Amino acid sequence: MIVVALLAAMGLSFAGAGVASAAPSAPAAAPPVTALATPITGTADNGSFAGTFTPTAFSSRNGNLLATGVLTGTVRDSSGAAIGTVTQTVSMPVAVAAATCQVLNLVLGPLHLDLLGLVVDLNQVHLVITAVQAPGNLLGNLLCAITHLLDGTPTAGGLAALLNAILALLGGL
């Protein structure tokens, strides 16, 4: 916890990662799967941090997906000299990359219409509508949610359980 406070005091920020200590009531975490280590860097006027975050477990809190794991790295001052190392268990929110879902794929063959003397000839039409899920994409999020109503898309809790199962499989390799 002291190391996290040291990083906060230096004013370091980690893109997309709110670092906090793991909940004390959390079950014992599995050993980290080093193949899943993610580089983490941060800079400030008075120093920098470079290291990795290796997930050990996933959980759901208030409908949000959280990754718990080991943060390791080196804290350097503004001249580049190492002033400390970090090995800390932390939990941080997981940002899910923008996803797309196909809403409609319509292929119409050539059409010949005679509308009371107005003749319309239309060659083949291929219409594809894709919705993009991301923060702020209201219509894309809504259409993807509707598209996946019946196919069992997992909730944050279900996704956490699935990711924990994958971690357990990878840890046994």
Would you spell out the secondary-structure blueprint of this structure?
Layout lengths: L1 H8 L10 E2 L16 E7 L2 E15 L2 E14 L4 E12 L5 E10 L2 E5 L2 E5 L2 E9 L4 H10 L8 H16 L2
Features:
single chain; 173 residues; alpha+beta; five-stranded antiparallel beta sheet; two-stranded antiparallel ribbon; disordered N terminus
Helix content: 10-25%
Based on secondary structure, the structural category is: alpha+beta
- Overall pLDDT confidence: 75
Low-confidence blocks of residues: 1-27
Largest beta sheet, briefly?
5 strands, antiparallel
In the sheet with the most strands, the strands line up as 1-5-4-3-2
The Cα radius of gyration reads 24 Å
Count of alpha and pi helical runs: 3
Distance between the termini: 31 Å
| Sequence of secondary-structure elements | HEEEEEEEEEHH
Q: What's the shape?
A: elongated
For the secondary structure, the number of strands is 9
Can you walk me through this structure?
The protein has helices spanning 2-9, 138-147, 156-171, and strands at 20-21, 38-44, 47-61, 64-77, 82-93, 99-108, 111-115, 118-122, 125-133. With 173 residues, it is α+β, with helices and mostly antiparallel strands. The longest helix is centred in the C-terminal third of the chain and has 16 residues, at 156-171. The protein is 20% helix and 46% strand. 17% of the residues are buried.
